[in-house]
Design brief:
The chain is of the alpha+beta class. 16% of the residues lie in helices and 46% in strands. The chain contains 1 helix and 6 strands, in the order E-E-E-E-E-E-H. This is Hypervirulence associated protein TUDOR domain-containing protein.
Length: 81
Amino acid sequence: MINEHWGFRIGERISVPGLWGEQKGTVIDFTSLQGRNAGRVAHVVVYRLDDGRVSSDSPERLYRLNRDARAYGIAPQARAA
């Protein structure tokens, strides 16, 4: 099991893209998906939104959303699950 990917840790609170702006979520898992076209493998971060829905996104996109908070040391720390 992977505990960290692109600096994200399981249990960490992150900002995630939403339909009406950014939302808060908690990282719950990491996985890899393989597409049918050319067999490309995509790595994704799986997270649970505060309203209970589960979703996923690319670590690159989530990193861009959360890098400013990380750069200034205000990113939320991982919580015990």
